[in-house]
Specification:
With 484 residues, this protein is α/β, with parallel strands linked by helices. It is 22% helix and 33% strand. It folds into 3 domains: 4-279, Alpha-Beta Complex (Spore Coat Polysaccharide Biosynthesis Protein SpsA, Chain A), CATH 3.90.550.10; 289-362, no CATH class; 374-478, Sandwich (Jelly Rolls). The termini are far apart.
Length: 484
């Protein structure tokens, strides 16, 4: 095999609603650290980077993400030192995976060397990276012959939460085989049949395809998606690290998945050959709390515990605590997840239905569906500590060298107390330096800005007072991050 150029495509637009309350729209599961210090997103990019060798060269890593997550992506790339080697393509809103991959293909096409796109969701775990890379290398070789290749996950249980791939024969490790058809999520009886047969595999959403082949395939099967995506891409804007298709034109793109738009039509097509490579690498998509349970070791009572928990006469349960002690007595087969502002208690058999809770929260306009009590911003984060009629208390951390926007409020006044580090404060016409235990008062309607000029993290306590204390009472005068 001569030198091959690949462009990893990291699809990072999911919301992870079935992992609520830990995963939320503003901070979804791909950016969370479940099993080690890195997030799923960081692990995914770091993992795929290791496939490079003497015969495989990595072109730009292409991350397709939602506009609202842009600073999360940038911050997490910076922490693993890949921010300079990655292009971030921002969707103004999610339209499923087919438009996302088409955006990436249009960017990759500019290189002129027709790179192989290695398309990987950002929210998966893999325990055997060697096996993963071997399967990818096999898939790349097949894709060079203009085939569309999907990696099929070797099933270890009759799982009803995944789509299935049916191949035309049983195969060995890393052997390629023709895909017969794709099957949507089956019932339990069918899933048991598929597991027993030996020629059904889980569809994990990992695809390998040449740039030119994908663009031809999407043109063949869903030319409306390609035409509309090209129109939005033609009027793209570049803002530092971010590449944005035109937001208004993006609204005209039909929403569809890679599977529905192209993959499921290939087995009946003479023009496009679709092949599958089996993948047996300890894969899990962490698509639910039950999936999370299955990826971790159980104790002598069959429980999986994280954080501060205490169990008595408790069996086969997941207990996940982030802040407080969670105690259980005389229960079994439960999922219990505690965060600072929400608690989930569910039967493990209902794990796939957690998203119904999120839908109810949305219907009631509850903030808990989208944001945590601890809210991440490009300059750091804030944590809502307490609130009541006419007041709100926040703990704010500002990254070294970062600053909030120059802003003012119509309805509230603020009192800032420095508890750690050194603060530089614009308060009206004054520029003030505050040390630990020093404070300043900002009247309603006065322009102000908080900055951290030092090398360490800055922490302050902010006390807001007024009749209206919501986040939309911010008038930004100047902002380093391009926010309105």
């Amino acid at each position: 095999m001569d030198k091959v150029y690949i462009s990893p495509v990291i699809l990072s637009g999911g919301s992870g609603s079935r992992l609520w309350p830990l995963s939320r729209e503003e901070y979804p599961k791909q950016f969370l650290s479940f099993l080690d210090s890195n997030s799923l997103f960081q692990d995914g990019i770091s993992r795929i980077k290791t496939i490079a060798n003497k015969k495989i060269e990595i072109d730009d890593i292409l991350v397709v993400a939602n506009e609202k997550h842009r600073f999360l992506v940038l911050d997490q790339l910076d922490k693993i030192h890949l921010n300079k080697k990655t292009k971030i393509l921002l969707e103004p809103f999610g339209l499923n995976t087919a438009p996302a991959l088409t955006l990436a293909a249009l960017e990759a096409e500019k290189k002129g060397n027709d790179p192989v796109l290695v398309v990987v969701p950002a929210d998966q775990t893999i325990t055997d990276e060697k096996a993963f890379n071997q399967a990818l290398e096999s898939a790349i070789k097949v894709a060079l012959n203009n085939s569309i290749v999907i990696l099929g996950i070797s099933p270890n249980a009759p799982n009803t939460g995944y789509g299935y791939i049916k191949v035309d024969e049983s195969i060995g490790k890393f052997d390629q085989v023709n895909v017969d058809k794709f099957i949507e999520k089956p019932n339990l009886e069918k899933a048991k049949e598929y597991l027993k047969s030996g020629n059904y595999f889980w569809n994990g959403g990992i695809f390998v395809v040449k740039t030119s082949v994908w663009l031809k395939a999407i043109d063949k099967f869903r030319s409306d998606i390609l035409i509309a995506t090209k129109a939005a891409w033609k009027k793209k804007s570049i803002d530092g690290e971010f590449i944005r298709p035109d937001a208004e034109l993006y609204k005209a793109i039909p929403a569809d998945s890679i599977d529905f738009s192209v993959m499921e039509k290939c087995p009946n097509s003479r023009e496009f050959e679709i092949q599958m490579i089996p993948l047996d690498c300890g894969w899990n998509d962490l698509g639910s709390w039950e999936a999370f349970f299955q990826t971790n070791k159980v104790d002598k009572d069959g429980n999986v515990q994280f954080g501060d928990s205490l169990t008595c006469a408790t069996k086969d349960s997941l207990i996940y605590s982030t802040k407080r002690l969670v105690s259980t007595l005389g229960v079994k087969n439960l999922i219990i997840v505690e965060t600072d502002d929400a608690l989930l208690v569910a039967d493990r058999s209902k794990s796939q239905d957690v998203k119904k809770i999120v839908e109810q929260l949305k219907g009631s306009n509850r903030f808990e569906c989208g944001i945590h009590g601890k809210v991440h911003r490009p300059w750091g984060w804030y944590d809502n500590i307490d609130s009541g009629e006419g007041f709100k208390v926040k703990r704010i951390q500002v990254n070294p060298g970062a600053s909030l926007s120059l802003q003012k409020h119509r309805h509230r006044a603020e009192h800032w107390v420095v508890v750690k580090g050194v603060a530089e404060v614009v308060n009206g016409e004054k520029l003030i330096k505050l040390l630990e235990n020093e404070s300043t008062f900002i009247p309603k309607g006065q322009s102000h800005r908080l900055s951290n000029p030092g090398p360490d993290f800055l922490e302050i306590i902010e006390v807001q007072s007024g009749k209206y204390l919501e986040e939309d009472d911010i008038i930004r005068i100047e902002d380093s991050y391009g926010r309105n």
